[in-house]
Amino acid sequence: MSKPAPKSGKGKTNEEIFANFQELRGEQRLLANKLSELGMDLNEHKIVIETLRGVEESRKCFRMVGGVLVERTVAEILPELLNNCEQLPRAMRALEEQLARKGADINQYIQSHDIRVQRVDKPDGAGAERDDATAKSNVLVASA
Description:
The chain has helices spanning 14-53, 74-112, 132-135; strands spanning 60-65, 68-73, 115-120, 137-142. By secondary structure, the chain is an alpha+beta fold. The strands form 2 sheets. A two-stranded antiparallel sheet has the order 1-2. α1 runs antiparallel to α2. The radius of gyration is 25 Å and the shape is elongated. The model is unreliable at 1-9 (pLDDT under 50).
């Protein structure tokens, strides 16, 4: 029987290195998407706050909380929105820090495994028979 491949950095196969690299990139994309989502939430909060400031405080309004539509008054909702509007930039800064750390982790992983990401572009005039889907592709090269 053959032994399973060791788990140390030196004993990883190119497929394992590539899978780990892709996982790190996926985590980075998730962080970037979440950061973008929080930015849109902040803008929406600001728009709603400005709208509600011009409305009578006793007027009823509705707010979605955890997928449930809740009926409240403007006077009850406005302080909650203002609090959220203060909290969102802090959460965004924390995500930006995590995103920067993830980028540093990816760069370190690329260096430690001697990974080169190459972009292959179709040269002008050459290979005209290839379709556009294969004209540009990324190639991951890991040196063993």
